[in-house]
């Protein structure tokens, strides 16, 4: 299966999303200040949306592999790790310095969306060069 690693990564991200959401709803409710609980839930929400987006790109890639799709997946993965991961750690540890990492993750996720737009507009099959020759 092509892109097996990416599919597994998306599946694991989905599992972590559900576990983190359940953890926030059941174990953290009433245990954290609202601000930190809100930060944790924001991390869950962004991870969920980007995991779904990854699944969409992977499904699209299965039928039409284009240059740039792997870059999109990589940017979103790194962005989720930095954005959501830093929010999870911030909420659980209370270390405010971790909040400095969060915007870098956001920038990577935005870059992934912009890379997706470029990928769609250029639309060259994976492995095809600028001149149209593989």
Give a quick precis of the structure.
The chain is mainly α. The protein contains 4 helices and no strands.
Could you characterize the architecture of this molecule?
With 134 residues, this protein is mostly helical. The chain has one domain (4-122). It is built from 4 helices and no strands. It has helices at residues 4-28, 34-63, 69-93, 102-122. Helix 1 (4-28) packs antiparallel against helix 2 (34-63) and helix 3 (69-93) packs antiparallel against helix 4 (102-122). The longest helix has 30 residues, at 34-63. The two termini are 22 Å apart. It is found in: Membrane. It comes from Billgrantia tianxiuensis. One of its GO terms (cellular component) is plasma membrane. It is a multi-pass membrane protein.
**Structural class determined from secondary elements:** mainly alpha
DSSP strand tally: 0
Work out the helix count: 4
Beta-strand percentage? under 5%
Encode the helix/strand succession as letters.
HHHH
Task: Report the sheet with the most strands, covering strand number, pairing sense and barrel closure.
Answer: none
Helix content: over 70%
How far is the first residue's CA from the last residue's CA? 22 Å
Shape assignment: elongated
Computed CA radius of gyration, to the nearest angstrom: 17 Å
**Subunit organisation of the chains:** single chain
As for the number of domains, it is: 1
> What value does the average pLDDT take?
92
Low-pLDDT windows of residues:
none
Keywords: Membrane, Transmembrane, Transmembrane helix
Protein name: DUF423 domain-containing protein
Membrane topology: Multi-pass membrane protein
Subcellular location: Membrane
